[in-house]
Design goal:
By secondary structure, the protein is of the alpha+beta class. It is built from 5 helices and 7 strands. The protein is elongated, with a radius of gyration of 22 Å.
């Protein structure tokens, strides 16, 4: 399992899963995303995005649209996506990374801290209001210094052995599912053999 930058050919897959998970696709650009890939079968497991907001004062970095496919949840995939995004923000020189999330406890384990709305840059205050109205009513602002990122050992270990969970297969449909008694039914083309 590894995390890489998204490519143009990932765009349709990303948009499908962002919509399916009800995540924020505002100002979508596939090049802003990273994708977790299972190296054994090249299957995509999850994704996340850094969105840069330009303001008069400076640029502001926001983590958004982090999603993990159901079969891959609970295995550290999301944690490694967050790690890659935060490391990228750090490499690009950001002193703070923000997130507007309805899952504050999840991000807190990496070092994000909940902040008051008044502590958000103006552009992110507007984003928070829009996000709360349209996508995630429980969204709260969080911030962290990217140099303080920490990965819990349990998530690092889980990621090493991550594998897609088998999807429950649908049971085969039989005549009974259509109200037919197979002991009594005759069929139009029954040859009697």
């Amino acid at each position: 399992m590894y995390v890489r930058d998204a490519r143009n050919r990932d765009e349709a897959w990303l948009l499908d899963h962002i919509e399916e998970m009800g995540l924020d696709e505002t100002a979508f650009r596939s090049r802003d995303y990273v994708i977790a890939i299972d190296e054994a079968d090249n299957e995509r497991a999850g994704f996340g995005r850094i969105r840069i907001h330009k303001t008069d004062e400076a640029e502001v970095c926001e983590l958004t649209s982090i999603g993990v496919l159901a079969a891959w949840r609970g295995q550290g995939v999301g944690a490694h996506i967050v790690e890659r995004l935060v490391r990228t923000a750090d490499d690009e020189g950001f002193d703070a990374v923000y997130s507007l999330t309805g899952e504050p406890d999840y991000l807190a384990q990496f070092g994000f801290e909940r902040i008051d709305v008044a502590q958000l840059p103006e552009r992110l205050r507007e984003r928070l209001a829009t996000k709360q109205e349209n996508i995630e009513p429980d969204a709260v602002p969080m911030r962290m210094d990217p140099s303080r990122f920490r990965m819990p050992d349990r998530l690092r270990e889980a990621f090493k052995g991550a594998a897609a969970e088998e999807a429950e297969s649908e049971p085969e449909e039989g005549p009974e599912d259509f109200g037919i008694d197979p002991e009594e039914a005759t069929y139009k083309y029954d040859t009697g053999s």
